[in-house]
Amino acid sequence: MLLTTPTQPNATVPGTIPSRRPREFCDLQTHFLTQIKGLTTYTVPRLDVQVAGTFQSKPTVGQNFPSIATESLAANWVVANGQVVPSLGRSLSGNAAVTIVNIVKPGTLYYPRLNQFDVRVAKMVRFEQRRLNISVDVYNVLNSSAGDQYQQTFGPSWLTPLSIIPARFAKLGVQFDF
């Protein structure tokens, strides 16, 4: 089990059992989580067409950013009171029927990276001192299907994606400046 290090390795007091603590969960360190983001825009001079692209590559973090324990994935094991009593020597506090134990060290298991590329093409039409900008934005051009939420309850469906990022879609836009 994850509870490994005795607090008093040579406890000799009669009738006592050395208590154990999950010390590997105390000192949480994670590797460097890199993010790459870029944006470029170019206007084709004679055509008055603007082309833009954005790219992002980032680790998909958990729901409760920014702590290490919630950025990484968990394997939450639901343990019944009957399973806890023999090792704990008593029932759970508050007469709880179950308790939840994470059996994966925080900061060791992460979601897959999210790589997304978006493109914008816009045509500028000028009327004297006015300007009309007609644009098409295409999001998730590479149609990435990275999950952004996973089942974290340990069992047969552990790490099954609960949702994925939206599929490729386009947005039409019109802007009139006067």
Quick summary:
The protein is mainly β and 178 residues long.
Task: Summarize the SSE layout with pairings.
Layout: E1 5-6, E2 20-21, E3 36-44, E4 49-59, H1 68-71, E5 76-80, H2 81-88, E6 98-102, E7 113-127, E8 130-139, E9 147-150, E10 161-164, E11 169-177
Antiparallel strand pairs: 1-2, 3-4, 4-7, 5-6, 7-8, 8-11, 9-10
Strand count, sense and barrel status of the largest sheet are: 5 strands, antiparallel
Radius of gyration: 27 Å
Overall spatial form: elongated
**Average pLDDT rating:** 80
Q: Give the neighbour order of strands across the main sheet.
A: 3-4-7-8-11
Number of contiguous helices: 2
Q: Which class of secondary structure composition applies to the elements? A: mainly beta
Relative strand content: 35-45%
Succession of helices and strands: EEEEHEHEEEEEE
Which spans have pLDDT < 50 for at least 5 consecutive residues? 1-21
- Strand elements, count: 11
Cα-to-Cα separation, first versus last residue: 69 Å
